[in-house]
TrEMBL record:
Residue sites binding heme per the record: C437
Family: Belongs to the cytochrome P450 family.
Key words, A-Z: Heme, Iron, Membrane, Metal-binding, Monooxygenase, Oxidoreductase, Transmembrane, Transmembrane helix
Subcellular location(s) per record: Membrane
Lineage of the organism: Eukaryota, Viridiplantae, Streptophyta, Embryophyta, Tracheophyta
SUPFAM superfamilies for the chain: Cytochrome P450
Residues that span the membrane, as ranges: 6-26
Organism from which the protein derives: Penstemon smallii
UniProt name for this protein: Cytochrome P450
Length: 496
């Protein structure tokens, strides 16, 4: 009996030991597998992770890591798991198979808001009432007028300033007034008005603060401390901008209550008339002011920066500038101005715009997404709440997709079917899928038309002591990708 009890105890001990050993082996194997299944990336420092690897120009530094770690990169930015996608193939996998899972965002707005009923409703309103092809086609005369006014400013200031002009000022003013006419049916800025200047300054400051890398994003426990003052300053300028827009919204509400009808029904009218239509979310007056403001912020920087980069490339590549001018002269002639109906007949202009967007995507790291659930992506395990960054800047310069990718070569798009609508994943300046830019149709028209009018109206040369070879093409990060040094050039009006 004692022997039997001893045998049982020994058997239980051996069984427990084997089970413990097996559990340890499986646990170690699972831990090892987890490491193997996580995408490759550099080892991080305690607490800060890979922040030093990313630096102040994250799109460039992430691109440099691609040669060592491949097109799918894993980073730890402080406390935040981060997945970086840097090839057309990896982007296609995301947008085609994981678009919904990766479609959440951590902050609130139409561009970067949480994937929710309110977000879908606001985006639908913007798409149907402001940015549909029909609405944009009807407003073509307004765009031409805004460009004509800008060209007149350039002519006047070139005389005053000894011939030289800085593109940034004129392009910013033009795009603001263009968008304000689309949204509220009037110019929001007079060229030399105090209120116009105040609005631009507030918008510029907001953009600078909002585009500054924020420690709170990687260390959420610092949120209340706000060590860099980013939240305080962002809220300061955002409140100022919302208040300025609210004045216009309140004025329109008073007009409607008094029975006055806006003959040219605009986007603000559509927002004020929206009653929910059976949807869960309705629009408050503050919501309306924020949506109107976001239309200004999202559109103005992207359009004006892309035009400035396009003119920078043309001035750096005078042969391309001459080819574009020759095409305009041959197709349009010297008896009239280019119109939007001409754009489809100008293949070299279209190629110049695509090549500009390839080398200088306005948002180099497409606005960050957030995984809604644990998921498997390209054989890797990606946990819930991982930040997902698509490095369009790197994808657009990938030798696997492009010959001589660092050169400005519009000819690569002649007779090419590649477009910017989000289905050719080697060229995604507007993103793709649920989160693609709803303003892409308007942006392409404005960039194309403005570059064409600048080249048709003026001959251009660089300032003294600046040659095409030493045009400063350094970048500066903000909400959008800016030139570090604003582009300066000398316009010489062409005689027709």
């Amino acid at each position: 009996m004692a022997l039997t009890e001893y045998s049982i105890l020994w058997y239980l001990f051996i069984s427990f030991s084997l089970a413990l050993l097996l559990w340890l082996i499986i646990s170690r194997k699972n831990a090892s597998n987890y490491k193997l299944l996580r995408p490759p990336g550099p080892s991080g420092w305690p607490l800060i992770g890979n922040i030093l690897d990313v630096g102040m120009m994250p799109h460039q530094n992430m691109h440099k890591l691609q040669s060592k770690y491949g097109p799918v990169l894993w980073l730890k930015l402080g406390m935040s798991n981060t997945l970086v996608i840097q090839s057309a193939k990896a982007a296609e996998e995301l947008f085609k198979k994981h678009d919904l899972t990766f479609s959440d965002r951590r902050v609130g707005s139409i561009a970067v808001g949480r994937y929710s009923d309110y977000w879908r409703m606001a985006r639908k309103l913007c798409s149907s009432e402001l940015l549909s092809q029909k609405k944009i086609s009807v407003s073509a005369p307004t765009r031409l007028n805004c460009i004509d006014i800008m060209l007149q400013w350039i002519k006047e200031d070139a005389v005053i300033n000894g011939g030289e002009i800085q593109f940034h000022k004129y392009l910013t003013l033009m795009t603001f007034n263009l968008l304000s006419n689309h949204v509220i049916s009037r110019d929001i800025m007079d060229y030399r008005s105090e209120k116009g200047t105040e609005f631009v300054e507030a918008m510029t400051k907001f953009s600078e603060w909002n585009g500054t890398p924020n420690l709170v994003d990687t260390f959420p426990f610092l949120k209340r401390v706000d060590p860099q003052g980013i939240r305080r300053n962002t809220e300061k300028y955002l409140s100022k901008l919302i208040n300025m827009v609210s004045v216009v919204v309140k004025e329109r509400i008073r007009e409607k209550l008094s029975g006055k009808v806006n003959e040219a029904r605009d986007f603000l009218d559509a927002l004020l008339e929206h009653d929910g239509k059976g949807e869960k979310e309705e629009l408050s007056e503050r919501n309306i002011s924020i949506i109107v403001l976001e239309m200004f912020m999202a559109g103005s920087e992207n359009i004006s920066n892309t035009i400035q980069w396009g003119m920078s490339e043309l001035l750096q590549n005078p042969n391309s500038l001459q080819k574009l001018q020759d095409e305009l002269d041959q197709v349009i002639g010297n008896s009239r101005k280019i119109e939007e109906g001409d754009l489809n007949n100008l293949p070299y202009l279209q190629a110049v715009v695509k090549e500009t967007m390839r080398l200088h995507p306005s948002i180099p790291l497409l606005l960050p997404r957030n995984t809604m659930d644990d998921t498997k992506y390209m054989g890797y395990f990606i946990p819930k709440n991982t930040m997902v960054l698509v490095n369009a800047w790197a994808i657009h310069r990938d030798p696997a997709s492009w010959d001589d990718p660092l050169s400005f070569d519009p000819e690569r798009f002649i007779n090419s079917k590649i477009d910017t609508k989000g289905q050719h994943f080697e060229l995604i300046p507007f993103g793709s899928g649920r989160r693609s830019c709803i303003g892409m149709y308007l942006a392409e028209k404005m960039v194309s038309l403005t570059i064409a009018r600048l080249v048709q109206t003026f001959d251009w040369k660089l300032p003294v002591n600046v040659s095409p070879e030493n045009v400063d093409m350094r970048e500066k990060m903000g909400i959008a990708l800016h030139r570090l040094v604003p582009l300066t050039a000398i316009p010489m009006e062409r005689k027709f």
